[in-house]
Write a structure and sequence with these properties.
- The chain is an alpha+beta fold.
- The protein has a domain of 206 residues: q2cbj1_9rhob like domain (Jelly Rolls).
- It has 10 helices and 8 strands.
- Strands 1-6-4-8-3-2 form a 6-stranded antiparallel sheet.
- It is globular and about 80 Å long.
Length: 295
């Protein structure tokens, strides 16, 4: 079985946590060394150069996007498994699931003359009730400076949670300045978009997204990181990208935890093994005992 990702008691940054709950976003200044971010961008340079522009008004015909960052640069894991970020994400999402999962790891380059993106909420990728729980948390890591004129992220403070049910778009928005090493954290219910790029340079960034472990993720992680690649991941990282069940029995392989594929499994047939929540396990055991008692 894969090692459980989440610590017993997350210890999030109290200021950032309060800002996320109050405004729907928070900024961690200097969360990583800018030199590490520069090296990560260098690792991705060929991908930025060779990835075609998107198609469609949402993805943008002047924007390049690509995922699978964990195999494009070994430094991507430093973003995905940033301790302070994970503490915040787990605190916000674990009330609604047993474990979180990696929803996406995507690099984005907004090129000159790219128009502003339509304001949106990332939680709307799932057709589920809104306003009651949070489904995901996204983190934007700038690779280049983010400024109001170059396609930086525009945010509507207070547009999250139950406010996401409002039919009218909020009036006040802001475009925070961000530099490489900063981390912009947003709830999935927060209204936001990329601004227009009115400069002559690309605006580059990386979005690392986390969602409830029982949801279908935006990026198909098992195709992005098949067993032959995921075997090189640490147990925590493998669990985060999907090589772990979410009780009860969700995401199993032949009735067992998919982490079996990262070990010595040779294709032999497997027997299904219960992976139930404690309350379900207790109910099943009580029922089984009652059946035996009445036999």
């Amino acid at each position: 079985m894969a090692t459980k990702l989440t610590p017993a008691i997350p210890m999030p940054n109290p200021t950032a946590l309060a800002q996320l709950r109050d405004s729907g976003f928070a900024i961690l200044r200097g969360a990583l060394d800018p030199a590490l971010i520069a090296n990560l961008q260098a690792d991705l340079e060929e991908d930025f150069a060779n990835t075609p522009f998107g198609k469609g008004a949402f993805y943008g015909s002047r924007t390049r996007r690509f995922g699978r960052l964990l195999i494009r640069s070994p430094l991507a894991e430093r973003l995905v498994r940033h301790p302070s970020v994970l503490d915040l994400v787990e605190t916000l999402l674990l009330p609604f699931c047993e474990r979180i999962q990696l929803n996406t790891a995507q690099a984005i380059a907004v090129h000159p003359r790219a128009p502003a993106q339509m304001p949106h909420r990332d939680q709307d990728m799932w057709q589920a009730p809104k306003g009651e729980i949070e489904y995901l948390v996204n983190v934007m890591w700038p690779l280049t400076p983010f400024r109001e004129g170059n396609g930086a992220t525009r945010i509507w403070p207070g547009s999250h949670g139950r406010a996401a049910l409002d039919t009218e778009e909020p009036d006040e928005c802001l475009v925070p300045d961000l530099d490489p090493g900063d981390a912009l954290i947003m709830l999935g219910s927060t209204l936001h978009c990329a601004s227009a790029n009115r400069t002559t340079a690309e605006r580059r960034g990386i979005v690392i997204g986390y969602s409830l472990g029982w949801l279908k993720p935006y990026e198909n992680q098992w195709l992005s990181y098949p067993p032959g690649l995921a075997r090189s991941f640490s147990p925590d990282l493998a669990s985060l990208v999907g090589y772990c069940q979410h009780r009860p029995n969700l995401g199993n392989f032949e009735g067992q935890c998919p982490s079996v594929l990262l070990g010595s499994h040779d294709g032999r047939r497997l027997g299904a093994i219960d992976a139930l929540r404690p309350d379900q396990q207790a109910a099943v055991e009580a029922y089984e005992a009652a059946q035996k008692g009445g036999a």
